[in-house]
Design brief:
Blueprint: E1 3-8, E2 17-21, E3 26-29, E4 31-32, H1 39-42, E5 53-54, H2 57-63, H3 77-86, E6 90-95, H4 106-113, H5 125-136, E7 140-147, H6 153-167, E8 171-176, H7 177-182, E9 190-193, E10 197-203, E11 209-215, H8 218-234, E12 236-237, H9 238-244
Parallel strand pairs: 6-7, 7-8
Antiparallel strand pairs: 1-2, 2-3, 4-5, 6-9, 8-12, 9-10, 10-11
Length: 248
Amino acid sequence: MRLVFCGTNSGGGGCPAVYETDRGTVVVQGWKIDRQDEAYEDARHLAENEELVEVPRELLERFAPRSAPDPSELVKGEAFSALFRDFAYTARRLETRTHYDIENERESFDQFLAGGQIDDLHWFEPWLETMRSQTGQGRTVSRVRVVPPELTDYLRFELFLARENAAAGEDIRYLDRKTASLAGLPDKDFWLFDSHTLAVLHFTPEAQLLGAEIITDPAVVVEHARWLDAAFQHAVAYEEFVKEHPPR
């Protein structure tokens, strides 16, 4: 079983916390209850392989995983692209995965892995043109990439391409996974537009983008904005990170 961190209200990234599992269940990390406590008299049908833990009510109210959205409800294609043309002030992202399977990148990725010249970045140009247009009008596009100590091949490929992002006006920063964990950041990808429209990204098990779940609930948006603030506070600028981690 593997866990995906959902959140904590400890303030330090530790206990108590809530996780989702890869088998459709939820794990709660809390304080052990002494076996001599009267709570064990009140517990119903507690089996030998079960345990009681104590957590604040607020933890479950804020971080209990929600049911996955129906795929038909996800924003994708042109509607997803429009999010990056229509925002007024800021577009900020938390990026946590170590690999993304993007069809139009595959040829360039293979060339990168082979150590040769990447022949053509035409597939990248629409995104770069949108970035040049938005940042040229004074809007901010920024992202924090949470990375492990040893970069995966794909993360090295992204780092290689980041010079193009930066030249187009994007502010890209890098954050080591240990610091992200201590800061209580979730293990999920999302964009936040103008601090009021949240786009949580959903992927297939093979790391292909299914689409974005759009959320405007103020409480949820504020929590994700807080995570972004923490991420940007601790992250290192691309220009500094690439000096210590050359992609090739």
